[in-house]
Amino acid sequence: METNVKILILEHDPNDLELLLYELKKSSLNHTTEVVQTKQEFEKALVSFQPNVILSDYSLPSFDGLSAFHIKQSIMPATPFIIVSGTLGEERAVDLIKLGVTDFALKDKLYQIATKIQRALNEAEDREKKETAELQLRLREEQLQKIMNLSLDMICTLDENGCFVTVNAASTDILGYSPSELIGVRAISLAHEEDRETAIADGILFRNGKDLINYENRYIHKSGRIVHLSWSARWNLSENIGYCIARDITNIKQAEEKIRQSEKRFRTLIQNSEEGLALLAADGSIVERSPAAIRILGLHSNETSGKFRIDLVHPEDLPTINNACQIVNNNPNAVLTVEYRFRMPDGRFKWIETHLHNQLHEPAVAAVVLNFRDITERKLAELALERSEQKYRDLFNLSPTPMWLFDTETLRFLDVNEAAIKHYNYSREEFLSITLKDIRPKEELPQLETIQRNTKGTGEFFQTITRHTKKSGEVIVVDIKNSVLDLDGREVRLVLATDVSERVKHIQAIEEQNTKLREIAWMQSHVVRAPLARLMGLVNLLDIAPTGEAKNSQILHYLQSSAHELDEIIRDIVRKAEQVQCHTQLAITPSE
């Protein structure tokens, strides 16, 4: 159903008002009008009537159109405002347009008013779409930047001179330089002197389109130490920029998260868009064409007439154009909007949005009115948004580390990646039907509530070690890293959960081993000394004691008792040593 357009009319002359209402009535515009004459009525109608467009006389007995425009700007600045005057000069009209007035119409050409209203509404809608697209692009860029900054690898872009254009936060850990210190610096200047010649030669091949896969070289850390890097890079010939990922392989560790690569996205802004106008006769010939139309379609300045070049329409869009023309030509007052691609003189295609309005029956026009504008930039913005959405999903779902999004208010899972589903054994549907409390052991719930209370609304990055419960009931130890995101005005957190259970078990085994070794050392240094000292004393006693069978028998008894005690202590030490060896083997043997 066609939208009903609410039109607020500020006019005091009943004759002019009657003509204006007549032109609106005979147009195809589905509308409702409200007429006011004074400032008080105008201000009240802005609030109560909430018009979609305002038509205002320039001069009134106690009020004027410029004052009405300023009042409108303070209350509803996005609403189109059209001056309707019989005496307004061209110079003054231009000044009003510069002030922000949407358009102006002469009272002796009121047949144009419906077209001007439709054009004003379209422009307002286009501005709203543009602002929405820009907001979504900005939010996605912020989300992607936060995800990228969680990477342990250095992700950067290089210009044609080999200088850093963008760098993520990992550069501080890997090279010792913050991103702001690296931007504008030639990457080769940080390379090891012995590797520079090879790197320069490979850089030439890289800029000519050769991908770098696991390309290794050495860089100098800010502290002076050597850092070994493994590069994966690709040069984008169309953007003339290189996208690179550098991993520190000096001490190779198990990666806790998958490399996420973000590429620079260019946003196209639609500014000062001018709408083209053409009048198309029943036989398809151009009666009149505005300068803006010539500019948009890439024609010569003298091409104000001729035939509409249907052959320049993209072949895939011809059925759409032909169908629209047939509908409009067969229906008086019909208004139709169509989007299509139009070939420029240089061979490229522009996206054109055209509004066709059948005015063949109107003697003053006797043509189909074509209002069109270049919407190529808007289309590119929409495509960029789609690509951004897809990249975000790929970075999220392809990570080998379990990741999820949860609502900080309800703790409910909003999204999970494939790694989380596989590791915790919950299906996606099961994850989305539970909360964080369902994967925490009961004794951990007070800690969860404390963390939730202390971090909610802070917007800070958070990391902790805690325990989770898989669907099977198995309890695991996890290293949690999370960061705040804004999702359609709602605070959510992006979480990376790394299972460190095996690492904790190994540490515990090593601690137990150290305890056993300390016991053995104490026994060797304290327990063995007592019977050994007695043996040494008895030997000395045998050497100096008088010869006697009873005396010697008693000393031999003491010797035998001390020897047995010493033998038992040595056996105990051997048993403890065997236990330490067993624990050591368990600690270094990977679990299946």
How does this model look, in words?
The chain is of the alpha+beta class and 592 residues long. The protein folds into five domains: 5-128, Response regulator (Rossmann fold), CATH 3.40.50; 153-248, Beta-Lactamase (2-Layer Sandwich), CATH 3.30.450; 276-374, PAS domain (Beta-Lactamase, 2-Layer Sandwich), CATH 3.30.450; 401-499, PAS domain (Beta-Lactamase), CATH 3.30.450.20; 503-588. The chain is 42% helix and 24% strand. It has helices at residues 14-26, 39-48, 65-75, 90-99, 113-148, 170-175, 179-182, 196-207, 291-297, 318-329, 376-397, 418-424, 428-432, 445-455, 501-527, 529-544, 549-588, and strands at residues 5-10, 31-36, 53-57, 81-85, 103-106, 154-158, 164-167, 212-220, 226-236, 241-248, 276-280, 285-289, 306-307, 335-343, 349-359, 367-374, 403-407, 413-416, 462-469, 475-487, 490-499. It has a six-stranded antiparallel β-sheet, sandwiched between helices. Strands 2-1-3-4-5 form a five-stranded parallel β-sheet, with helices on both faces. It is elongated, with a radius of gyration of 41 Å. The two termini are 65 Å apart. Keywords: Coiled coil, Kinase, Phosphoprotein, Transferase. The modification 4-aspartylphosphate is found at residue 57. Its EC number is 2.7.13.3.
Question: Which helices and strands occur, and which strands form pairs?
Answer:
Elements: E1 5-10, H1 14-26, E2 31-36, H2 39-48, E3 53-57, H3 65-75, E4 81-85, H4 90-99, E5 103-106, H5 113-148, E6 154-158, E7 164-167, H6 170-175, H7 179-182, H8 196-207, E8 212-220, E9 226-236, E10 241-248, E11 276-280, E12 285-289, H9 291-297, E13 306-307, H10 318-329, E14 335-343, E15 349-359, E16 367-374, H11 376-397, E17 403-407, E18 413-416, H12 418-424, H13 428-432, H14 445-455, E19 462-469, E20 475-487, E21 490-499, H15 501-527, H16 529-544, H17 549-588
Parallel strand pairs: 1-2, 1-3, 3-4, 4-5
Antiparallel strand pairs: 6-7, 6-10, 8-9, 9-10, 11-12, 11-16, 12-13, 14-15, 15-16, 17-18, 17-21, 19-20, 20-21
Helix pairs in contact: 2-3, 5-11, 15-17, 16-17
Domain PAS: 140-197, 262-332, 388-458
Enzyme class: transferase
Protein name: histidine kinase
